[in-house]
Amino acid sequence: MASIDTHLVRREIKAIAASSKAVKKLLYDALERLEENPSQFPELDDCPEGFATQYPNATLRKVRIERDPHSYRLIVVHWILKDDDPPDEHVDIIYAFPRKRGYPIDWNWVAEFMDEATE
Q1: From residue 76, how far is each of 8, 21, 85 by CA, in Å?
Q2: pLDDT more than 90, % of the chain
Q3: Which of 10, 13, 26, 65 is most buried by its number of CB atoms within 10 A?
């Protein structure tokens, strides 16, 4: 089980949940699945070169929430905190937005966030 922190996107998550009852259910189901096993969500493509090696205990993942005509994405940092069996895991949800082609990610901000989190 992973702990989940939504403080960076609380307002956006409320807006997604308010879009429809079906989307709200999908959102809460996705958050529950994220808590149970963050590794089941795909890794985010197109991370900057060297990003994975700079943060070896973190993986950026994307969560899809789709119910026609709605399509949302959550971008999360999945942290493996210890090498125990099972490891301690934590998830920070850092972006929550309506899906768009080529959605922009502020990689400088993400790196600053991750640097602060690892201090």
Answers
A1: 11, 23, 23
A2: 54
A3: 65
